[in-house]
Amino acid sequence: MQDMFQNFDAEMLYSLAIGLAVVFIIGHMLYVLIKPKKFGSAFSADEFRSQRKMAQMPEESSEEENQQSWELLQIIFNTYTWVSEDEEGEELRKPRKMKEIVKASQLMEQLIELKPTDEEVVAMMNEHREVIRSNVKRSFDGSTRLIWMGVLVAIILALFTLIEGANFFRSFATWGAFFWGPAIIYFIASLTPQFLIEKRASRGGGNLASGCAGIAFGVLGSGETVRYKYSDGTTEDDNSSHIWALVFGIIAMFIFAITISLWALVNYFRNYVFYI
């Protein structure tokens, strides 16, 4: 009896740990997506003058402050990864790592504290503001096939329950949630910063999750009709391969749909933690 309770407690703790981990991951992703983005509005010299006046500072930034601002702008530029040189020998740089964007943002905060009023400085600040904001903007960079497969498996599962007289929509919302739920989490986990999308594109390669989903859909469409022609001129079509393709395709879809949670976890770490 004591062993039974110990096993029960261990299973409870294991389930609780997994549940808390899932809640944390979802909460972290939503926080990253919903939290206010830095540098929401464009900088302006007039706004800095107003801020300097409220802070009882000279209305115009000094030569020393302007020089500090230019130095910080240069450091921000040098923070980015070197890409190439143009025809005039000017360096072209852009963020390729999250730590570069974080550092650039911190330096931008120092610039804002200086409240420069030099128009050229402010214009350059706005250029870097756009670089930072455009590179952290997220877009879906996952497998739409995998998402559709999760939804289709949920529908198929709900249809199977009709055999026992269950309500389709109730089954889809309950049993089907084991597949469309991970598909939703996978979608969120696959929202990728623009700099990372471009970095992966430059490395080349395909989407492994999309390839796995493609296998399942490929099996579904692999059936062929075989036509037999007899000596008397009559013909007969054999469509059994379509049935087998349907059966094996559905089985493959269920197998790959079970892995959606794994792909969601992988994309969470890639797009929200390690940025690789």
Topology:
Blueprint: H1 2-34, H2 45-54, H3 63-79, E1 81-85, E2 91-94, H4 98-114, H5 119-136, E3 138-140, H6 144-161, H7 168-174, H8 177-189, E4 191-193, H9 194-203, H10 208-220, E5 226-229, E6 235-238, H11 240-258, H12 260-273
Antiparallel strand pairs: 1-2, 3-4, 5-6
Percentage of helical residues?
Answer: 55-70%
End-to-end separation in angstroms reads 49 Å
User: Structural class of the helices, strands and pairings?
Assistant: mainly alpha
**E-strand count:** 6
The average pLDDT score comes to: 90
Total helical elements: 12
Low-confidence stretches: none
Description:
By secondary structure, the chain is mainly alpha-helical. Helix content is 68%, strand content 8%. It is built from 12 helices and 6 strands. The protein has helices at 2-34, 45-54, 63-79, 98-114, 119-136, 144-161, 168-174, 177-189, 194-203, 208-220, 240-258, 260-273, and strands spanning 81-85, 91-94, 138-140, 191-193, 226-229, 235-238. The strands form 3 sheets. A two-stranded antiparallel ribbon has the order 1-2. Strands 3-4 form a two-stranded antiparallel ribbon. A two-stranded antiparallel ribbon has the order 5-6. Helix 3 (63-79) runs antiparallel to helix 4, helix 6 packs across helix 10 (208-220) and helix 6 crosses helix 11. The longest helix has 33 residues, at 2-34. The radius of gyration is 28 Å and the shape is elongated. The mean pLDDT is 90.
